Amino acid sequence: MKRLTAVLLGTLIALPVVAEEVDRIIDAAADGHVHVSNIAGEVTISGWSRNEVEVTGELGRNVEELIVERDGDKVTIKVKVPRKGGRGIDSDLHIQVPQASSIDVGTVSADIDVTEVQGEQRLNTVSGDVSTEAFGNDIAAESVSGDVEVSGQRKDAETEASTVSGNVTLFRVAGVVEAASVSGDVIIDEGSFDRTSIETVSGDLVFRGDLRDGGKINAETVNGDIDLEFDRKVSGRYNIDTFNGNIRNCYGPKAERTSKYTPGWELNFEEGDGSARVSVSTLNGDISICD
Q: I need a labelling partner for 32 at 20 to 30 A (CA). Which of 12, 151, 234, 270 fits?
C-alpha cells in the first residue's frame, strides 16, 4: 500500500505544469504611457478607441506572475520570471492600448509587432524581429539579431532603426532618419527627408525618396552596393567614392580614378544651388545615383 501511494505521488509530481491563459483589463489614460516587459515569446500591440489596456495570451508554465498595474498615466505590463530564467518562460502577449498611447517595449528573445499605435515608441529586443507603424511621432526600434521594419504615413518625425544581424526596412517615413545594420541590408523606400543617415558594414544600401532643399544624406557601407534614386534632381554638393567598384551617375559628371596605381573611383561635383549635401562611400561595391 505504501509503495502504491509512493507511485501515485510520484506520478502526480511528474505531471507537467500547463501554460496559463490570461485575460486582464485595466483603465488607462487616452494618451498615457504603456511599458511592456516580456523576456521570451512574443509581444503584439494594437491601438484601439477605448481608454483601457487589455492583455490576453498565454504565459509560460514556469512564469511566476503577470503584473498589470497603473500608476497615474502609466500602465506597466511585466512577465515576472525566476531569476535564473530557464525553460518554460516563453509567453505570448496580445495587448490593446488607447491609440494615442506612447509605448516602451523591452524583450530578450521575443518578436515585437505594433499596429495602430500613434504615440512615441521605443522598441527593443535582443533576439527577435521588430515591426511597427509610424504616425508622425518619434520611433526608436532596435534588435540585436533580427529584422526591423517601420511603415509610415509620410508624416515628419525622427525615426531610428538598427540591428546587428538583420535587415532594416523603412517605408513611407519622413523627416529625420537614422538606419543602421552591421550584417544586413538597409532600405528606405518612399518619403521626404531633411536628414538621412544609412549605414551597414556588410550589406547593400538602398534609398528611394526625396531629399529636401538643404537636406543631408550620408550613406556608407564597407562591403555592399549603394543605390540612391531621388524623386527629383537634388541641388547640392556630392562627395562619392568607392575603393573597389564602379560609380554610375545620371546627373552628368563621370567618376575619376583616385590614383593611377589603385582601383578606387571618386566623384565630387555641385548640382544647382548646392544647398543639399550628398555623401556616399563604400569600400567594396558599386554606387548608383539617379532620379
A: 151
